[in-house]
Design goal:
With 88 residues, the protein is an all-alpha fold. It contains 3 helices and no strands. The relative contact order is 0.14.
């Protein structure tokens, strides 16, 4: 697998994990007493964070929140620099 395919596969995993978090958030908003769903939501948040960290360690930040503030101040962050994650 080349680097481009690896990046797209990892980005897909980030999107899938984020989707699970959103869906469980919506469900638990309407079913606040479903303790099993709340536990699944907590685990999904952990998994989504883990997948995002793995992607960002390999390919760089996905959002400004992922850039350490000291680094952003010291070296700057150039959002207009290409390629953006979806352009690679």
């Amino acid at each position: 697998m080349n680097s481009h395919e690896e990046e797209w596969n990892m980005l897909k995993k980030v999107q899938q994990a984020d989707f699970v978090v959103v869906e469980l958030t919506l469900y638990t908003d309407t079913h606040p007493n479903d303790m099993e769903a709340i536990q699944q939501w907590r685990e999904a948040i952990k998994e989504a964070a883990k997948v995002r960290r793995k992607y960002e360690a390999r390919f760089g930040p996905l959002s400004l929140l992922s850039v350490p503030s000291a680094q952003a101040i010291e070296v700057g962050w150039h959002w207009n620099s290409t390629p953006w994650p979806w352009q690679r």
